Amino acid sequence: MTVEQVWVLADPRAGTAAQALGIAERLPGPHRVVPLEWGKLARLPLPFPTLLGLTGPARAAFVPPWPRLVISAGRRAGPVARWLGRRGARVVNCMRAAGHFDLSVIGRHDDPPDSPDVLPILGAAHRVTPARLDAARAEWSALAALPGPRVALLLGGPVRGEGLDPALAAALGAQVAGFAGSVMASASRRTGGAATEALAQALSSVPHRLHRWGGTGKNPYLGFLAWADVVVVSGDSVSMLSEALVGPAPLFIAPLGGEGRRHLALHQSLYAAGQARPLDQAPAPFARPPLDEVGRVADEILARGWL
């Protein structure tokens, strides 16, 4: 296999790009990452295969030899992927998008149709793998010294605005500290500085590690997932909820309020599958099998003989 056989169309939004990258990284052999940059036409729901949504410099990367397989994610990348499909490539697209793909990988919370060219998954595709968690467990072995139960608290925040309400962050931190032996907390860009400080104060009563967004040192996020006895994820983050499914720890969803219809549908899909419970049911333990949905997508691609 050569690098030209698999192309990954990488959206400039990290969470969207991670869906396509995560699938490609589970396939044998190398792949080529093609960065996408969007122009004004990308905002239109283009139903036909085209490169029109790309800026000129990004469009210049599309020259033969063409790949055998293209992996993309999102509505904007869909027409670009289908343009390559017209040139002989098989196309796998994550999330709903206009037009037909050889395989559409769609979260169950988006109510995917029952079709042989649709593969429903719980949550969204991502780059966390069982192997990466095993490596993180070794790399962050010092976390084993924290008293149990070790609770990983993964906190996001509103997509728009100036960050999470500090009072809400403090209340969530106090709730988790109330049943944790120790807390391993990670704040994201959307959490904001004021909410992160409020969280730090709320966790001061228990042993804890707090990773601040933009802080110094390597991000221990995967280490937190690998060593967690319990995982609590704020309900705004599709990515973190999906990544938490890879490990075996009980997963609890902390609603922040204001989550939209799709986020609430995601929560319900995880509850219905026995993969998560609402935070108000913590800390009652429950068993759940680790879930490797991205590995299942990769296996499906290989089973169809596209590589």
Describe what you observe in this structure.
This is Mitochondrial fission ELM1 family protein. InterPro entries: Elm1-like. Pfam families: Mito_fiss_Elm1. The chain has 307 residues and is of the alpha/beta class. It folds into 2 domains: 3-125 and 295-303, Rossmann fold; 130-281, Rossmann fold, CATH 3.40.50.2000. Helices cover 30% and strands 18% of the residues. It has helices at residues 14-24, 56-59, 77-85, 130-139, 166-177, 193-202, 221-227, 238-244, 261-272, 293-303; strands at 6-10, 32-35, 69-73, 90-94, 103-107, 118-121, 150-155, 182-187, 208-211, 230-234, 251-254, 277-278. The strands form 2 sheets. A 6-stranded parallel β-sheet has the order 2-1-3-4-5-6, with helices on both faces. Strands 9-8-7-10-11-12 form a 6-stranded parallel β-sheet, with helices on both faces. Strand 1, helix 1 and strand 2 (32-35) form a beta-alpha-beta unit. The N and C termini lie close together (8 Å).
